[in-house]
Amino acid sequence: MTLSALDADVIVDQLNAGELTATDCVQHFLNRIESHNPDLNAFISVSQSALEQAESIDQRRKAGQTLGCLAGLPIAIKDGICVAGQPTTAGSRMLENFTPPYDATIVQRLKSADAIIIGKTNMDEFAMGSSTENSFFGPTNNPWATDRVPGGSSGGSAACIAGRLAPVAIGSDTGGSIRQPASFCGITGLKPTYGRVSRYGLIAFASSLDQIGPMTRTAKESALLMSVIAGFDPRDSTSSKEQVSDFLTTLETPLKGIRIGVCRDHFDEGLDLEVKTKINDAISVFKQLGADIKEIELPHTQSAVAAYYVIAPCEASSNLARYDGVRYTFRAQGEDLEEMYRNTRGQGFGDEVKQRIMLGTYALSSGYYEAYYLKASKVRRMIKQDYEEAFQNVDLILGPTTPTPAFKLGQHTQDPLAMYLADIYTVSANLAGIPAISIPVSPSSTGLPIGLQLQGRAFEENTLLRAAHQFQNTTLWHTTSPSEPWRTQT
Amino acid sequence: MLKSSRASFSLFLTKEDSPHTLSKLDPVESLMPNTPEQTIVNQVAKLARIHLDEQQAESSGKKLEQILGFVSQLEQVKLPEDVTPFFGAIESVNAIREDQLQTSVPREKILDNAPESDGEFYLVPPVF
Amino acid sequence: MNPTSSSQPNDRHAVKFNDAKIIIGLEVHVQLDTDSKLFCGCSTRFGEDANSQTCVVCTGMPGSLPVINQRALELSIRAGLSLNCQIARSTKWDRKNYFYPDLPKGYQISQFDQPICGPGHLEIDASESPSKSRRIRIERAHLEEDAGKSIHDESSRRQDSKIDLNRTGTPLLEIVTHPDIRTAAEAKAFLSELKLILNYIDVSDCNMQQGNLRCDANINLHIPLGEEQIATPIVEIKNLNSFRAVERSITYEAQRQFEVWQEHGLTIADAPKQTRGWNDPTQTTTLSREKEDSADYRYFPDPDLIAVKIEESKIQQIQSQLVQLPSELRKSLVEQYNLKPEDAAVIVSQGRGVVDYFLEVADGCQDSRIANNWIGQEVLRQLNESNQTIQQYPVSPQQFTELLKLVIAGTLDQTRGKEVLNEMVEHSISSQQAIQQLGIKPVDNNELVTLCEKLIDENQEVVEQIQAGNQKAIGMLIGKARKINPNANPGLIKAMLSEMISS
Fold first, then answer.
1. Is residue B42 one of the residues assigned to a domain?
2. Is B26 among the domain residues?
3. Does residue A365 carry a catalytic annotation?
4. Summary mean pLDDT of chain C
């Protein structure tokens, strides 16, 4: 078996057992990046010091020193997360030359676990998008068919896992930005409960919705990463002090008797028929595993996309005000301060980012706050309550992650609404703050991956991971990789 | 004064107007020879400090109107009278720190990312 | 903006300025005395090298997040309680969005609709009022972060502006009054009392030179015109950084508004609120250059911070630790120590340290009037001359008490007492040591008799003057006596001489 085919937990075992050196492991994936990244454009930058770190870990291991639980494991990080001394662009021209002087909390935690950051992955600019086409550094291609998008905004992280350019990756999810690309690329992606993982060092898009999470091939790998990155952070006021569950030990607890809710509204209009069939097939698998399937209702989730496209742009318009040409790298010249501001922000931001800043600015401006932001926040309360009621009767909620498989590059770039509807099943979890995971099911007839979403109660990631893991114990969809050379057309 | 600012004059529409149409304008603001959509886009762009050329303003205006039309469905959502807005996804309280000094970041490191500085200050074009 | 007022210009010109009522409300920004900033661990120290006290949080570095400083909350509650404010049980944070180069995030974290302190009030001294005091209502007080400092090139060369972010994120309490203030003097009295209170309770040093207390004044006039009351447009005078500037700008602005009204007749309904600045060199207010959209701050709840719940027990704990406020101390100095109100005010205005010093000395020597005379005059003068605080004063209250006991007992007269005090201050020694160094000894009666006889013998012409009725001439003899023996008590000498001469 080649290194590319190994699961991260197996790689870690082999490293620990001395059957594999960190240097060989990192070198293998660096080689993969070198030869395949030109086709995918999954990475914005590759770490110059990864090999050096690997050598140091090998030496420490040889010297018998105690190492972290991910010692020597290469990991790819979305480029919206700060790594000290390494370029961090958030996919924007605005931060093209930005080098943060500090590590995000999750980066610190991964470094303490002796994981090796191998590179920073491509993304929609400031995480605004569902296709990674809004990157200043060019779009990422889907390894299952390179004429298709990998989803977004964490498209680079999803594509590099599907294309095996890295064993595991980190993404961030504001309205589906981990789960939707995971679905399009046939991998596993977990958006944790809001507050479960520190946001410190994550370049903000919409602060009340953003959450960092793992993007991996298997649920077990996600559990492994969660055990490192989850937990309270005194530097993030919104991080939770709730006890962190042991994600790995509960994976094998049988599903017998687990109650899974299905919201039939989410199987109606707009859902691709093939996706519907495959999701229904997956429901049968869960039944076989002993799950009790129940119908539930989430009436206000119908307004979720509308609420999301008010709240997220409002927060973004404020979060992105700091990019004004004074402190962070990009500045366009101007005769006076005002002109410098307008030119910097006119040229430094891409079209979609400007569009959302304008929308948020409008919606927060004098006289509109009540009609937009306040109303949307009240709808958000209703969505949260819908979930709380549903979770009285079920343990998990199951449905499709996205209404269609990956679409073609350029297909929706001129139609913002069509693009926004790619988030229709994912935004509710962000609005309610609950955890959700996307896992691959049987692909489409054209060989494109299809994702299934499980949503759970707040702080019950272990239940999501357990259900996903046992689904993956009985299916093989998560183990399939696109055959090389990758298809260029579908 | 804080309280007066939100209630102050509206840049775009009066409160009674439907919030999702872009057709009505404050008469003082509508003297520019543009379409109403463009005028509003230009006003928002100004408030957001974003330069748009004419073509960008036009396409941006169309998209803005399209999205506002879409989110206007929120108006139809019936809510219980006493519903409290949910602004953040965590409802715990009191994340606080002790009043303790921590080492600041060295100036050269902080100014390293500045587009223009003299080694001591950030430099910006004259304000007026 | 047409002058739509119904009044005729002639009516307006008949009105006198003194008939107009001046309506003033203040917004006071006070820097809280914390070690670290409101949302990060950088120091709040003044006067350090530019941009040497910043970090990823206070420079708004992408990805950084704020965490609230607990002490800033406690100091705000303490200030609120001292100003009779209701303290919020739940308070939250909002973003005030505007662009300025010394505002790194493009928004200021502030409090919009749930300020930490609600309505309160402050009594100020107002000698013209029958009750001698006036109550100024406080609308609210909220916490917010300060911006940085911009240094603009004022020359015609239009060079780049320089930005220093050291001050960015320093905690400020913004205290907003109702428009209850009626004169420039009242505005000054309010600020003086506020400053004194915040000093007493260790919330802020209120150093105005360092910008730790800054004031904006909202002002307009209510002018009686026939049956009507005309209100002039409201003007906000920004960034007043001395009491003098507050007083003078209000006086100037009231007069200016009156003249503008007489000329144009514009009322509050005709013009929006205007922002003006105080120009110290010309002693005038001038219209501020403002961005047209500056009023649209797009406030919304800050999603990076969570609500703060304040328990009743916490408020009670802070309340129980509150020291006596200036007004209470003034009252107790008058009622329990028999000081005149104006003397009590002088002592209290010097700060808590001087009050404590006074109380210890007054209690020790059992004569509060003498204690007041000596502390109110000698000690304050010496502190002022040496630019020292009472904590630095070399004479301890115990030593001072010993000195005053000697004066009260008549062992030392006033003049000698002051000599002793100067000696104590100069050499940091006790009164006993000073007396020794100055060679002060008690003089026995026989010695005095001999001295007086000698004086009468040697100064017959003076004795004759006294006998002729010129009682003042006796002073000359006393002076001569003191030259011969500085320890001779002038009172005793006088009595003895009078008796000898008259017999």
1. yes
2. yes
3. no
4. 91
Domain identity same for C451 and C406: no
Domain range for C354? 324-437
- Residue B29: band (very low, low, confident or very high) from pLDDT cuts 50, 70, 90: very low
Residue of chain B whose alpha carbon sits nearest to that of C300? B87
Domain span at residue A173 reads: 3-258+400-479
Number of H helices, E strands in chain A: 15, 11
- pLDDT at position C436, please? 86
Domain hosting B24: range is: 12-80
CATH number of domain containing C451: 1.10.10
Domain annotation covers residue C207: yes
Q: Tell me if residue C468 falls in helix, strand or coil.
A: coil
Chain A interface includes C442 (CB < 8 A): no
Q: Domain total for chain B?
A: 1
**Tokens matching residue A172:** 């961030």
Examine the pLDDT at A1 and tell me if it is beyond 80. Answer: no
Give a yes or no: residue C114 inside a domain: yes
- What is the count of structural domains for chain C? 3
> What's the CATH number where A459 sits?
3.90.1300.10
Do residues C133 and C126 lie in contact, with contact meaning Cβ atoms separated by under 8 Å?
Answer: yes
Q: Does A444 participate in catalysis according to the annotation?
A: no
Residue C314 lies inside a defined structural domain of this protein: no
What pLDDT is stored for residue C8 in this prediction?
61
Q: Please tell me the predicted confidence (pLDDT) of residue C3.
A: 46
Statement: residue A159 has pLDDT above 80:
yes
- What burial class does residue A269 get, using C-beta atoms within 10 Å of its C-beta: 0-12 exposed, 13-18 middle, 19+ buried? exposed
Domain end (from C309, C332, C363): C309
Interacting residues of A89 by C-beta distance below 8 A, sequence separation 6+: A44, A45, A79, A95, A96, A98, A120, A136, A137
Distance, CA of A227 to chain centre? 17
- pLDDT surpasses 90 at A175: yes
- Given a cut of 60, is residue A273 above it in pLDDT? yes
Average pLDDT, rounded, for chain A = 96
Q: Is residue C316 part of a domain?
A: no
**Higher model confidence: residue C469 or residue C19?**
C19
Interface subset of A 185-214, CB within 8 angstroms of C: 199-204, 206-208
Q: Pick the residue from chain A with its C-alpha nearest to B8.
A: A366
Q: State which amino acid sits at residue A18.
A: G
Closest CA to B127 of C274, C165, C166, C150: C150
| Neighboring chain B residues of A358 at a CB cutoff of 8 Å | 41, 44-45, 48, 50, 60, 64
- pTM for this prediction: 0.91
